[in-house]
Design goal:
Helices cover about 25% and strands about 25% of the residues. It is built from 14 helices and 30 strands. The strands form six sheets. Strands 11-12-13-14-15-16-17-18 form an eight-stranded parallel barrel, surrounded by seven helices. The longest helix is centred in the middle third of the chain and has 19 residues. Helix 5 runs parallel beside helix 7. The two termini are about 45 Å apart.
Length: about 675
């Protein structure tokens, strides 16, 4: 290990062993402590777009609707929401004269003629023409759905200075563009954000995980889970989805993943595997399975959601329980048990004018695909899930060749939604489903805990609309901003020069800096000096790296204190850890914020939630904002997020901020500190 300078070692020992003393630092005012700006790339990428220089001024600009379709009203609602969120101002109705935002369809002869004169195609289903110039902004849909899609694109042209000039002709490559959401006790606080987000990404359907809705049948049977959403909430979410152009498709997992019907130890007589401690599959030969549980619940779901189609699950049948397990089931055989179950559910849904959808892997498994599908109605929609990157047509084409409408289904790995979207287009599939497997009763994790399953909504939405478009480069930042929109404005404050506290350089030319690994694995790609990192401005001078359990960090101080003596609205920390290794949400340290009134507030640092290693690029929580992203010299992807801490006592002077390490493997490392808010 590299030996430390004796004088530096003595000074650090004083910091480690003695009381914390605030170190004077230089604060420099900045007009852009935080400055959220519009993103320049359009997502999804339009099929054809030209963005000439120039902007249409916002002063006096209002919106005009031509037509009466509900979708046109949705478009205006969303545009007004964008103005309010981004600018803090209202978008009013258009004046009688002067430039305006006009929203309509080719059903109006005048708008159709304008679109034709502009040379923009508007004939494809859900297609639209959009142009902005000095005369105004026009959205002309090939149909009302297309006009609504066009409004989502126009929202992305909004800047503080006006609407960017554009000429766009666009339409989707896939008919069905579906995203998966959950119903539970947290439904409203999450789905009220996710549903508008999906609409902005031009999805047109939601697959709604509905196993644990508190159905009347489940309540009467004693197996309604207390964490399940109410029927009223399920109905509300379905109507909310419709109002954002999203078809609600309930998913109630049957045959397999049927633990919901055994909750509280109920319905044990309906287990397929009598030895199962956590039943997974039900007994298809017991009439009570259908009469007492499954069919009544499907009937309730149809009444609540009013769906055109319902997904009955049917995946991973034999991944946990034996199937068949009972002697009578073994005598009948797996194939017939599966077929008869599907036909029973299909018939019940068809009697209510509802189509059936199911996962592919049980009925179309390699062992049965030669015989079982031939026994099923050809109007059953089959969702083929494949969660690997770079997928080909393969199974999609085979299922379609057997005569079934087929959809692809993707998940979260890079390249998976993009590859599956291309495969679905090539196979002539109906569309795609972006799945989300964050578990039951964990809805809030889509923001905090499993946000890495929300980020792919952005990538998939773009790929489903236009598979030939580029992969979204800033999906994390876009997801965060779509879920919780930030105003387009600069907030003043002050950057902090942390030079007096720096313990490690970001560069490591001689194995004595950063993490003692040399120049190939250091953070030298992060520029020093006053620099913009994400939406924030920092003064980067090096790293205030604190003690950790690694040999390269054991002799570092356990705390560092910064003099502030300012009133602030918020503090922005550009921080990371030298090494990973902490458990999710494990406390690895804290910030101690000391006020002039003698009080102190602690800001806990929980790994993965509000701090993570510079080599840990998976964003499990959106509490951290995207900051720096880059590569080491040897090509390792690295990042340093930003934690913005809203000050609950903005009118009280903050005397100091102390970073404290708990000395674990993941050791807190502060690289930049910015004070947000210009307060005397």
């Amino acid at each position: 290990m590299t030996r430390m300078n004796p004088l530096l070692k003595l000074a650090l020992a004083g910091l480690i062993l003695g009381p914390a003393h605030a170190v004077p630092v230089t604060l420099s005012p900045t007009l852009q402590a935080r400055a959220q700006e519009p993103r320049t790339a359009l997502v999804p990428t339009p099929k054809r777009a030209t963005l000439p220089a120039g902007t249409l001024p916002l002063t006096g600009l209002g919106v005009r609707v031509v037509g009466t379709a509900p979708e046109l009203g949705w478009a205006v609602r969303d545009l007004k929401a964008e103005w309010q969120a981004r600018l803090g101002t209202a978008l009013g109705d258009a004046a009688a004269t002067g430039p305006a935002i006009t929203v309509g369809t080719v059903a109006d002869a005048g708008l159709a003629a304008r679109a034709k004169a502009a040379g923009l195609d508007t004939t494809a289903a859900e297609g639209y023409a959009l142009w902005v110039d000095q005369g105004g902004a026009w959205i002309v849909g090939a149909d009302a759905r297309g006009a609504y899609a066009g409004a989502q694109t126009l929202r992305q042209l909004l800047t503080l200075g006006g609407l960017r000039y554009a000429q766009i002709s666009d339409s989707p490559a896939l008919k069905d563009r579906i995203a998966m959401i959950y119903l539970d006790q947290y439904s409203a606080q999450v789905n009220d954000r996710v549903i508008p987000l999906l609409a902005q990404l031009k999805y047109n359907g939601v697959l709604i995980m509905s196993n644990y809705v508190q159905w009347d049948t489940a309540k009467a049977g004693g197996y309604a889970h207390p964490g399940g959403a109410t029927k009223a909430e399920a109905r509300r979410v379905a109507e909310l989805a419709r109002s954002y152009g999203l078809e609600p498709i309930p998913l109630i997992e049957t045959l397999s993943h049927a633990g919901w019907m055994f909750y509280g130890g109920r319905n044990q007589d309906l287990r397929q595997d009598v030895d199962s401690q956590n039943p997974w599959a039900y007994d298809t030969l017991n009439p009570a399975t259908y009469d007492r549980v499954v069919l009544p619940i499907l009937k309730e779901a149809v009444e609540v959601f009013r769906p055109a189609r319902l997904h009955i699950g049917h995946d991973e049948l034999r991944s946990r329980d034996r199937f068949p397990a009972r002697d009578n089931g073994k005598a009948v055989g797996l194939e017939t048990l599966v077929v008869e179950d599907i036909l029973k559910l299909y018939g019940a849904l068809k009697a209510q004018n509802v189509a059936t959808m199911l996962w592919h892997d049980t009925a179309f498994a390699d062992s049965v695909i030669g015989t079982l599908p031939a026994r099923l109605p050809r109007d059953i929609q089959v969702a083929y899930w494949n969660y690997t990157a770079g997928t080909s047509v393969g199974m999609l084409g085979r299922i379609k060749g057997l005569g079934f409408p087929v959809l692809g289904a993707s998940w979260q790995d890079p390249g998976n939604p993009e590859g599956m979207a291309k495969a679905s287009v090539a196979a002539g599939a109906l569309g795609m489903i972006q799945t989300r497997w964050s578990g039951y009763f964990g809805n809030p994790s889509i923001w905090d805990g499993q946000a890495d399953q929300g980020v792919p909504f952005v990538r998939a939405g773009s790929a489903y609309w236009n598979p030939d478009g580029p992969v979204v480069a800033d999906a994390v930042a876009r997801y965060r901003d779509l879920y919780a929109p930030t105003a387009y404005r600069a907030v003043p404050g002050a950057t902090v020069n942390l030079s007096p506290l720096v313990t490690r350089a970001l560069a490591d030319p001689d194995n004595k800096g950063w993490i003692f690994k040399g120049p190939d694995i250091d953070l030298s790609a992060l520029k020093t000096g006053v620099t913009r990192v994400g939406a924030y401005t920092f003064d980067v001078r090096g790293a205030v790296m604190l003690r950790g359990s690694r040999p390269a960090a054991k002799e570092l101080p356990e705390r560092a204190t910064v003099d502030v003596n300012r009133r602030v609205d918020a503090l922005a920390f550009l921080h990371t850890t030298g090494w990973p290794g902490a458990l999710a949400r494990e406390a690895i340290g804290r910030y101690e914020v000391a006020y002039a009134d003698g009080t102190t507030l602690n800001v806990p640092l929980e790994y993965g939630r509000n701090i993570r290693a510079w080599t840990d690029t998976v964003p499990s929580s959106m509490i951290q904002a995207p900051g720096f992203a880059g590569q080491t010299r040897d090509g390792l992807a690295v990042n340093v997020p930003v934690l913005e801490w809203p000050n609950p006592k903005p009118d009280t002077v903050i005397r100091s901020v102390t970073l404290v390490s708990d000395g674990k493997n993941a050791n807190p490392t502060l690289i930049g500190l910015t004070l947000i808010g210009d307060r005397p």
